[in-house]
Amino acid sequence: MQEKITSQQLGMMAMLYLLGSGLAFLPVSSAGRDAWAATILASLVSFFILAVLIKLQTMFPGLSLIQVGELALGRWPGKILAALFVVDLFIFFLVAAHDLVLLLRVFYPLVGRLNLTAVIIFASVYVVYKGINPIARVGQVLAWVAIVFTLLALTLTATRFNLQNLTPFLADFRPILAGGIAGAAGPHSEIILLALFLPLVSDLGQRRKTVYLWYFVAVLFILARSWLVVGTLGAEGTALSRFPLLEGYRLVTLSNFQRVELFFFILWFSTSFFAVVLGGTAILLSLQQLFNLKDYRATLFPAALCALSLGLYFIPSDIFFFDMVISSEALLVLPFNLFYPSLVLLAGWLYLRRHPRFRPSTPMKGAPGR
């Protein structure tokens, strides 16, 4: 029986993914004091992708991006794009896993990268094996915990805020554009992975606004983070820090309580690990549809071993990760994440024009009529 989730669960999953991929890091730091403006620019990309995916789902209820691509573009063009999409998802997963490894090594510097990577990947294997419904239910609980801790974290950071670090505003558009592209590449364009979960939503036709609501909550948190972190550390301090938000917490003092940043470890780890789990689940769902498998968990262990091997081979060091992997996302991942759903949406619209009586064999409950 196919697993089902609700629009609220999907929206919370989207929020946790964006927070887990973008809360502790500041990919828009190249924009300097205008990182907040670059965040707004990057969020426009994720909003566009999300809107395209939801529109596509209402046009073809019950079918995923991969399935609509094969239907509207033809089997082999659809398969080729789907294979590239799988590679895209592997990149998301590896980047999210390595981000979490880097964060954990701040707190556990004596533990090797291989050991941490293996623990994270195989821990996510167990969670993914439990199924999508348990993941969605955990996300419902974790979302509220993340909101409370994020509000508290941003409030504490605001105590060290200095508006002078943000002036003059919008002095040069070029770094804003560069920061916006970097932020759009990751994590904002990675929201395309929701394309694999949207067919499982039972009430999207009636409650798709709920998905947008939780998405905007995540964007507001990330925007507040960019504003407060740069206002606290300054443009130079933000650019030199690997974890700007963590450095901001270290400046906060609460009476005799030291190492305030340790208090928020639960926020960073839980949201970052949830992002890894969603990335892994998306990979399995895409492989299931690419190879027409009955159970998406059939490729669980092979995909995990492949991810572990690829991660250790293609990310040999932290310097290589920041210099090559992160920069290549803007050149390779971002264009594909914009092109693929846009092309499928256009092809799907043309397909419905040619076949006005087409109806999917498994219509989505609550989908509006065409």
Please provide a written account of the structure.
- The structure is a single chain.
- The chain is globular.
- It is mainly alpha-helical.
- 71% of the residues lie in helices and 0% in strands.
- The protein is built from 12 helices and no strands.
Sequence-ordered SSE layout with sheet pairings:
Elements: H1 7-22, H2 35-59, H3 65-73, H4 75-107, H5 113-130, H6 132-158, H7 173-185, H8 204-240, H9 244-250, H10 265-291, H11 300-314, H12 318-354
Helix pairs in contact: 1-6, 1-8, 1-10, 2-7, 2-8, 2-12, 3-4, 3-12, 4-5, 4-10, 4-11, 4-12, 5-6, 5-10, 5-11, 6-8, 6-10, 7-12, 8-9
Radius of gyration, taken over Cα atoms and rounded to an integer in Å: 20 Å
- Helical stretch tally: 12
- Poorly predicted regions are 362-370
Structural class: mainly alpha
C-alpha termini separation: 27 Å
**How much of the residues is beta strand, in percent?**
under 5%
Biggest β-sheet description: none
Give the helices and strands as they follow along the chain: HHHHHHHHHHHH
Mean pLDDT: 85
For the secondary structure, the number of strands is 0
Proportion in helices: over 70%
Identify the quaternary structure here: single chain
What form results from the Cα inertia axes? globular
